[in-house]
Amino acid sequence: MTDDRDPWVRDFYQHPLTEAVLTQGEATQRIADRLWSLLELASGSRVFDQCCGDGSLSLELARRGTRGYGVDISAPFIDAAKRASTAGSELRFSVADASAWATPAPCDAGFNWGTGFGCFPEDSKNQAMLDCAARSLRSGALFVLDYYNVAGVLANFRAEFSYARERAGEEVHITRTSELDLRAGTLHQVWRLSAGGKAPTQLPRTTTRLYLPRELCAMLERAGFSVVALFGSAEGEALSLESPRCLVLARRV
Predict the structure, then answer these.
(1) Strands 107-112 and 46-50
(2) pTM for the full model?
(3) Phi, psi of 146 (to 5 degrees)
């Protein structure tokens, strides 16, 4: 993800305030519960966390007995993941381009959570990320791709949205401005963060390719997966226009 034609990825994920936007917080345990069930995990399972961020989901799963690998373009996030990993942990975190990195040993399951997918303007680069996920898994392994529910995004588009999150004991106020480019099939977003009465800080502008569920399924199938099911959130309900997310559960052929 360091292509000069798409510099936002590098800049955005290196920014010190990005974690306030991306951190799962108290939802981590709930998401880990769902992954444990969806991916049919057990103690000793080797799991691939593609675009792992600060590794919070891998770390939570490891507390339940899993091991495995995490990869992310952000050196600060990977440093945080390594610091949080306990001595003797069988988790290995790497700073790398997730569209060109596969695990050194085949895994029993994998996931890409939090819209780590779709960050390239070229379909071929996004496809390469799924190809790497497939190469990282043994035959029969399950994989979950968490992504925008694009139909819902288009139907309920909001140009601006504000919310608050806690970071280092301080409330951070976040305003997200969004712009659709329907011709290019992309979503552009800008986050502005403020805390402690200070002037807002603007994160680098992001651009994400928009894929409908059928397109995600086709890309996963080209990578070597068979699609098992689609869900509308980590809670497991059926995908609909009102769903907050699109989760695709697939099995490595």
Answers:
(1) parallel
(2) 0.92
(3) -100, 125
